[in-house]
Amino acid sequence: MGHIVSLAAADARSFDAFLESPERPNGLGIVLLPEVYNVNQWVRRVAARYAREGFTVLVPDLFWRQQPGCHYEYDHPDAARAQGEHVDVDAVVRDVGTAAARLRETLGAHARVGAVGYCLGGRLALLAGTREPVDAVVSYYGVKLDQHLDELARLSRPALLHFGDADPWVPNDVVHAVQARMAGLPNAAIHVYEGAGHAFDRDGQPTYRAQAADLAWRRTLALLASSLRTG
């Protein structure tokens, strides 16, 4: 069972993160970055799923600067989206670096750490890939990536991006712009899933699309295996 730990932020304050550990830690870590709903029950299950694959997982509270411990289930979409609109993206990306450093301290000098994120978390994971000491990044339907095209074009770490072609929150023209700017990056792969909308990986909810989610999961594990396990 996972539990809450405290991390020291860069400004000497502290914030909470949910820690899920595998039965046998093996030096591999993931900073798991949630949707605007923050550290809710769904993302905790996702953390447990990665832990079963051998990863030690930290899920930081994305909104602790606004209101610590404010987590929502899916019956409060307006409140969740409101906190997402007011988040300090640059500060939270620095928190990803803090969480990655904590995982390295916990797992040892040779630890390898990836960042995996969903929705807002997908945006944060990609930005962490250019700014923070993470070894690989995976983004599920990251939002507002059109605001970071120049930065995405400089991404050098192994990266995997998942999009649905029926996602109103990440329109196809944004996906095409991301594809164009990241074209030619040797370590980046972008996959678009036919008939999948936003949150297609959110099992247990109406947005879930099993075929897309299963394929994205296999591709994610393959990327993490190639970039972390053999890194």
CATH class: Alpha Beta
Mean pLDDT: 96
The run of helices and strands is: EEEHEHHEHEHEHEH
CATH-defined architecture: 3-Layer(aba) Sandwich
Counting DSSP E segments of at least 2 residues, the number of strands comes to: 8
Task: Give the strand order of the largest sheet, numbering strands 1, 2, ... along the chain.
Answer: 1-2-4-3-5-6-7-8
Q: How many domains in all?
A: 1
Class by alpha and beta content: alpha/beta
- CATH homologous superfamily name? Alpha/Beta hydrolase fold, catalytic domain
> Which fold name fills CATH's third level, the topology?
Rossmann fold
Indicate the low-confidence ranges by residue numbers. Answer: none
SS strand fraction: 15-25%
| Beginning-to-end CA distance, first to last residue | 28 Å
How much helix, percentage-wise, in residues? 25-40%
Radius of gyration, whole Å: 16 Å
Total helices: the number is: 7
Largest sheet: 8 strands, mixed
What sort of overall outline do the alpha carbons produce when their principal axes are compared? globular
Could you characterize what this model shows?
The chain is α/β, with parallel strands linked by helices and 231 residues long. 38% of the residues lie in helices and 21% in strands. The protein has one domain: Rossmann fold (3-Layer(aba) Sandwich), CATH 3.40.50.1820. It has an eight-stranded mixed β-sheet, sandwiched between helices. It contains seven helices and eight strands, in the order E-E-E-H-E-H-H-E-H-E-H-E-H-E-H. The model has no long low-confidence stretch (mean pLDDT 96). The longest helix is centred in the C-terminal third of the chain and has 20 residues. Strand 6, helix 5 and strand 7 form a beta-alpha-beta unit.
